[in-house]
Write a sequence for this structure.
């Protein structure tokens, strides 16, 4: 809502709809056929990465611009691989946001300076170090992990991903093994440490 108000006075941009989760975003894009979608990484339902992947696959001409508080890896690289063209943070000013929207609408990539610098650094070092232990996870495991740290039950995760709770348990085991944690609480602490979620103290 805040971004919609910011964009009201921009003559060449019209906000045609607002979605509160990934599933609703998919439905609204089919109905409204926008040129650009502003996508958050963390949201209820299937989440921003999976929603971006589905949108990019179904609507290859759609420009997807990520606007989020999550600027730490592995989110930027993962959602860009999923099909987003741009990535800026919610602290970005109106002028830069408008520039990013126009670039993405024209089919061009746009990254805020801090995100671009981080990605460049990680790519330069990719053969030497892992920027985040979460890079060890597959796309599907990452999706499950983020739902776990956002306090979704196994049944809720299974329902949203259209798979069985038993499969979710298998994913949970793999995630714990790869990240060397043994509980949802430790997984959440690790996610906070690497900037994937915000601590309630912040």
């Amino acid at each position: 809502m805040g971004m919609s108000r910011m964009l009201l006075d921009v003559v060449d941009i019209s906000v045609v709809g607002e979605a509160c989760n990934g599933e609703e975003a998919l439905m609204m894009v089919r109905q409204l056929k926008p040129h650009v979608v502003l996508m958050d990484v963390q949201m209820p339902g299937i989440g921003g990465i999976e929603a971006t992947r589905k949108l990019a696959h179904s609507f290859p001409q759609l420009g997807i611009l990520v606007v989020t508080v999550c600027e730490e890896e592995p989110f930027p690289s993962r959602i860009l691989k999923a099909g987003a063209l741009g990535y800026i943070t919610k602290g970005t000013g109106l002028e830069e946001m408008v520039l990013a929207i126009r670039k993405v609408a024209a089919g061009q990539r746009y990254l805020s300076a801090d995100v671009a610098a981080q990605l460049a650094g990680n790519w330069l070092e990719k053969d030497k170090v892992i920027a985040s232990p979460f890079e060890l996870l597959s796309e599907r495991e990452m999706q499950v992990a983020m739902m776990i740290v956002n306090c979704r039950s196994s049944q809720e995760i299974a329902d949203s991903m259209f798979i069985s709770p038993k499969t979710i348990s298998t994913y949970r085991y793999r995630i714990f093994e790869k990240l060397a944690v043994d509980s949802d609480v430790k997984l959440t602490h690790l996610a906070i440490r690497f900037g994937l979620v915000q601590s309630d103290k912040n």
Observations:
- Residues 165-179 form the longest helix (15 residues).
